[in-house]
Each structure stands twice: as C-alpha cells, then as structure tokens.
# Entry
Amino acid sequence: MKIIPKKSLGQNFLVDDNVVKKICNSGCINEEDYILEIGPGTGKLTEFLILKKPQKLYLIEKDSGLIGLLNKKFKNKVEVINEDILKFELKVLTNNNLVVFGNLPYNISSQILTKFIHYNKEEFQYKKLVFMFQKEVADRILADYNTKNYGRLSIFSSWKLNIEKIMDIDPSSFFPKPKVLSTLLVFEPKKQFVKFKNSRNLEYITNIFFNQKRKMIKKPLNILFKDPNKVVKELNLNINLRPQNLTKDTFYKICLIYEKLIQQ
# Structure
C-alpha cells in the first residue's frame, strides 16, 4: 500500500533511522511510562517507541487514511485514536508518567505546544514533551529578551517549561523533503512557576505588547491599565523600552498585576 503524504495536513514522514533513534532516546522512556505520539504517519518512530516497552502507547492520527495501516502494522501493541490533536480532550490520558512525542505539522505546531502548556495542571500532567518544529519556530521558542526572535511564544513557552534544544534536522531526513530545517526540542515541566488565575491572561497581555512590538511599551500599558503610571512605578519600568527589551519575568509580573486589577 503506497502512502502519499497529504500537503493539506502538513505531512512530512521521517525516513532517517538515525534521527528517529535520537528522537526516541530523547524521551528517556522507562517501562513505567505511558507514551502519546502525535501524528505517527506510517509509524517509523512508533517502531522504536514500542522497543522501549512502555506501559501503553497511544497514537493520535488525524488522517483516517492511515488508521488501517497503523492498526494492521502494530495490532494490539498500540491504541490508535483517529482525532485532531487540537480538538482532542487530553485529560482522557491523565498520567504523570506520560511522555509525548510529535513530529508536528509546521502550520499548527505552536498551537499544539500552547494547548499542552494550558493543559498542564492538576487534572492532566505530563513528564516530558519531545516535539519537532520548523527551525524558525524553534528559534522563537528558545529566544531570550533583547534578541530579534523574542516574543509571545518565547515568554509563554518558558513560563511553565524548561526547554532543551537537542538538534537541528536536515530536510533529507523526511519524505517529502521540506524546504527548511527542523529542530528537535525537549520540554520538561517546571516544579516552580508563577501561578496565574487564568493562563490565557498571559497570552492576552503578550499579544497586546507584541502587536505593538516596534512601539515603546507606554502604548500597550495604556491599553491594559487605567493607571499605567502605577504599574510603571511598581515594576520600575522604563517606558522608552520596547517589548523585546522586557524580561520574561517582567511580563509575568505585569500579568499578576493585571489579574489583580481585573478582579477588583
């Protein structure tokens, strides 16, 4: 059965065994772990994950045309779920030993990561995320303040997660070959992080700031606060700075003040 990758689903199947092995080993899986693989495609990575003998291996695949292939190939070794990861209710898989792998479609990779950050709370937790991104997106995730790639994704990703870059991956490792480099990142939940009433407030605030990224921070502060001078004084902010000049911790503090004021 010949499988033709679907451009509409952003499918680029991994074909390089050496790269697949490195991805698999990056999860540091043991026999107590449960695994979720997002977008297994033809099951190249799945073959290596099975060898780690996890407690259970879930595959979530949106392409219904691949479901029969995966079930036939792996039989009772996996549980195949034919759903869109962006619509899937993650808490069905609640387990603190869950390791999540994903060769993510470029066009929705940041949305998938954001979903996992929002979901990482009492009713659903995971041990590790092993995700592949377009290098340009990975650079934005890893960026620190005062750099050109720094922005909303950098701030939100680092809020709850420690992030490690494993490697860049050449287009030749995929079929069909993408036109850009990919990057493998590993995310582990932080034990200590700033607690917000609603994590979407941080998204909202960073959106306001970085929609005006070339403007000085005075403008977004005026949008967010009735009395921005009070916030400026409390955080000792220089209103002549631009959003990319503010540290991640500063954005977390701004969010805490915002949440406090909207509750009044």
